[in-house]
Specification:
With 292 residues, the chain is α/β, with parallel strands linked by helices. The protein contains 14 helices and five strands. Helix content is 60%, strand content 8%. The longest helix is centred in the middle third of the chain and has 22 residues.
Length: 292
């Protein structure tokens, strides 16, 4: 019984190599930070990559991968590769690292602290010019399409709901085929918004890439400024990634993304007051029969 408990306790600990990356992430910059972010988001597939392949995936030079190994105390790429290959489940490890016991008071404090930290850091880092461009793009668009998958897909749904509530017509799809089909019908008068925590979700990135090819304006909400989605976005809005999550899409990320969505919605509403008031009144009349 004791050995089984020891095994479970060991599983609860974050993998040492990823804990090291988390500890030094804020001090990293340039190509070394790109390597760190890529590994955090792709720890499961990174062990299958050679040094050169990892550099290509992270879009850095091979020498940057070597420098990164030094930054986290690894004796060369082979040691890093071996450590990554030994990882079992990061998600489970990190989750239980945050919540060590069944103490709801502790759990509540941890969750709210993470959310407050991410909201405060995101607010401090938001670029007001980009926010204004986002508001202007929504007001100017003939058609608006919002795309996202998984957790980010639910945020995309909330984004569409909020815009529709204030009278802004928009469509939202989580099915990747419908996303791409809808994008092909757009042109330079339209707007496509992609929501992706990692900025690397293939379907969402492909949708923005195709949108640009069709001439539409593109916007993204993500946590990673150097991720692939930003290459195809005319307007980029960033939430501050909480390093303790080690790339796992935790509660705080969704809260920060929704806060950005609410800021955009409020900005659109304030610049379009007449339509907003009409729409909210109409929505309230429709909803009155759905309440006791």
């Amino acid at each position: 019984m004791s050995s089984e408990n020891d095994r479970l306790n060991e599983l609860d600990k974050p993998p040492e190599v990823l804990a090291k990356i988390r500890d030094v992430l804020k001090q990293l910059s340039g190509e070394e930070r790109l390597v760190a972010e890529y590994i955090m988001l792709n720890y499961d597939t990174a062990p299958a990559l050679s040094l050169v392949q990892l550099a290509e995936k992270a879009q850095v030079s091979p020498s940057a991968v070597v420098r990164f190994c030094d930054c986290i105390g690894c004796d060369g790429f082979h040691e890093l590769h071996t450590a990554l290959a030994a990882i079992d489940s990061v998600a489970a490890c990190v989750f239980f690292d945050q919540f060590k016991d069944v103490d709801l008071e502790h759990v509540t404090t941890s969750v709210f602290q993470d959310i407050r930290q991410m909201l405060d850091e995101t607010q401090a880092s938001l670029d007001m010019e980009s926010l204004q461009k986002a508001v202007d793009a929504i007001l100017a668009a003939d058609q608006i399409l919002i795309v996202g998958m998984g957790t980010s897909g639910s945020t995309a749904q909330e984004f569409a709901y909020r815009l529709q509530w204030i009278g802004v017509p928009c469509k939202q799809y989580v099915d990747p085929h419908r996303q791409l089909m809808a994008v092909t019908l757009l042109d330079e008068h339209d707007l496509v918004i992609g929501v992706s925590h990692s900025g690397r979700t293939t379907n969402v990135v492909d949708a923005l890439k195709l949108a640009k090819e069709c001439g539409a304006t593109t916007m993204c909400i993500t946590d990673f400024p150097h991720s692939p989605i930003t290459k195809f976005a005319d307007i980029c809005l960033y939430a501050v990634h909480v390093e303790s999550s080690l790339g796992v899409e935790m509660i705080a990320t969704r809260a920060a993304h929704l806060a950005i969505v609410d800021v955009i919605m409020a900005g659109v509403a304030l610049q379009n007051k007449e339509q907003t008031i009409k729409s909210i009144k109409r929505q309230e009349r429709l909803l009155v029969n759905l309440r006791y």
